Amino acid sequence: WGDLSGLLAETATHRLDPNRPLPDTGSLRQDLTSWAQELITHLAQPCSKSLLKAAAALANDGTDTDCLRNRRKEALALVEQAHARGEQAPEAQQVIDHLIAPIVFRLVFGAEPVKPELAERLVGELFRIVASER
Fold first, then answer.
1. What is the pLDDT of residue 16?
2. The model's pTM
């Protein structure tokens, strides 16, 4: 590992990345909602939340964390899945910026519990943003 940051990064990646298939409901809106709800449920567990906070505190070397790279890869897979079905979709980075980032920010810095219901609201906001850009 080399140092504490390396050890924590590997531990966090292993613990914070649930081993599960991505949703494929036939609708990007529902896929994103299900995905985000699962992430909230998983990351809001006390151990996961503590690891997320520690990983965020040590993530200052100018490179993306494995956790972010993995979320970006999942977002891209969901967007490509939607395109394959003929759906219009936001860019994967928009999914990160408007869905995943607010969830992680609340988990790391917020005092209030983050509940799965937040996912539906954020997905709705994402789709409104994308619609206004078109």
1. 66
2. 0.88
